[in-house]
């Protein structure tokens, strides 16, 4: 006989009957193939309406606990033993986090103070208009067409890149776009990489199963000679501002690289232009893509440095051959990037806000860089080594006190300052001239934080000469 | 001698000098290794200040056109021939698009009328507070912790899923998360898939290099027998509402599948719970994950159907063994999902808006489904075949007029109505009972559009009995 053992207030009556019958089936009170009382009978015995029992039986049938046999009634389905369901696991109350440093010289942060919060909020509000159905719909794989148009126009003006909206692929940041690229390059395609290199790009190409050929860079970036006899290869380079060493590729090397790509079979150049917007003593260098007329350059850009790392929007500009491969491979898929943010970014670029923001930020970062340089020179004097061109968001620094990279990082951390090792960026063993160097990013720090950080570094590193 | 040939108004003087020297180098007027006039001399001859020439020379040096030799002056760097730069390619004026249907029975659209635009806009505005640095920072790979907490609580209440924020991975929709999953499963892991199946999932696993084992489903979903002797295998299933056939997996089959997974080596079940929220006659069925106590179920959910396809946010709930593999593989990477939208979604769930929205939408979709069913029955009478349980956003329909799938689609399109073939979802040849069936989604259509669409389908299909 079915009785309601545990009345749980706050649950509808039919649900309590459903739960009770489930318990009875699991507990063996109701055996497999056993016939249940008719709805009318059970309703009468529980003192509820037939509709209530009907709802409970319907739920049990839909989940497969009961089967309804026409003209005969409801029967218990045979089940293998089911283990008891558990209570909800306890949740930790605070987000797990790394030990937070007092001053963090991360190279991945942007200035939080000068972000155009008001403009962005206004664009969000205006873009998210009532009843704009387009905002709910799946975005085509290449991304919002208006945003692609805005990026194409910006790229021509600012970076000399030749493209139309049709050859642009919007993606969820550089790592995602490198994955997309890996799919459309032949599987057998080797990736030649600068050594040292942006290590996440290296991990992605490795993970995607490409052979990786590390090429040690010189003062002009990636040399062409080690590539001379290679075919079916894509060369990943950061010509505007090599990561992490900061050298830029002069025009002569650029032309050599292009000629090399044109001369062989299936040769491509992946130009990661990740922070080209920030050059402080001269204007940004024109892109490699701008002087490519053989369809050899794949251009990769993001808004990670120029707007914010949390805005996961980047883009590829594909040459014609790879664009067809992309269209074939990705037909039927959707964009991974939120439509709303694509639209907001589009208005940000179109309205001239992006250009104004870049101009402002160049001044801001130039100031921070000068401050950091001066503070370091004052703290460490002539033994200080500094590397990295007048660009980007970081410096390579060696205090010249004989400490190793890991000693420098550990001593800094003891004083509450996080600085970053550069050895993870080397695919091969780190060469002697870069030992004892660490990476100091300054984009996310205020002037006071920079000064405080350097003072603490002096304590951390100064004693051990 | 350097002269300014083309004065371009609107450009600073130093830039015009820079451009002229570049032209002279490209044009051979200035030869490789040729010495340039001193800054002072050139300034005098052009009638500009030395600072202006200095800026032009600095830019040319930074790009590698000139080299500065201390005490000796500026020299032209040797360059291989560079081809002429081209004008900006012409842009098409309108977004390229598919032929738009008058009525589109797409299964991928959501109702645009009942979207909580005002709430979402308010949450956007409130979330994007001035000076909230957290919104600019890179999100850790698993996603925003507060959102993960909100999802864990929702999942337990609504789907019986057992998890904490720590075992949730936020990703940019189902396709992205299946890719992530593919990385953390062993490469040698076979993926067993329901046949027919959500074809993008199939494409992704194939592309990622997994062997795929198609298993024909029966009326209870995926049978366990074909898997009996398999090890090192993950089974991709949609137990709440099979896509595209719409069957749901009864409790007995669920238990069998779990027991099978527990009995072998490296066996996992991927539960894609893609539209479990929408069941119209009974309550949503509890998830497979809720009765798994062997750590065998990988739970996949998205907000594609429950909020909007344009919101690219989904999540995985990983069992402990795979969670460690994930953490190892993804350390150092960032989330692909915009932080802002993660925060807004978090507030949407926490504030109870999500639950209210689901309740409202169940009623809305139930009404649309009933309307479509009634209109189809009236139009096609007793020869009409209809399949798909009382759930989801689509029906499988065959008018019973002997037309093939492609004839049905083409005839509908001629009348301006888009209906969808189901053969693309079959990995093997489509079985006889599903020929002559097409897929009609109704989520994005209004009542009037549904009625108009069916009237046009009657014209398209009715004549040819």
Automatic annotation (TrEMBL), chains A, B:
Keywords for this protein: Aminotransferase, DNA-binding, Pyridoxal phosphate, Transcription, Transcription regulation, Transferase
CDD domains from the UniProt entry: AAT_like, WHTH_GntR
Signal peptide per UniProt: none
HTH gntR-type domain: residues covered: 11-79
One term of GO molecular function: DNA-binding transcription factor activity
Classification via SUPFAM superfamilies: PLP-dependent transferases (SSF53383), Winged helix' DNA-binding domain (SSF46785)
Statement: the UniProt record of this protein carries the keyword Transcription regulation: yes
Cited InterPro entries: Aminotransferase_I/II_large, HTH_trans_reg/aminotransferase, PyrdxlP-dep_Trfase, PyrdxlP-dep_Trfase_major, Tscrpt_reg_HTH_GntR, WH-like_DNA-bd_sf, WH_DNA-bd_sf
PANTHER family according to UniProt: HTH-TYPE TRANSCRIPTIONAL REGULATORY PROTEIN GABR
Family (UniProt): In the C-terminal section; belongs to the class-I pyridoxal-phosphate-dependent aminotransferase family.
The protein's name: PLP-dependent aminotransferase family protein
UniProt organism field: Guopingia tenuis
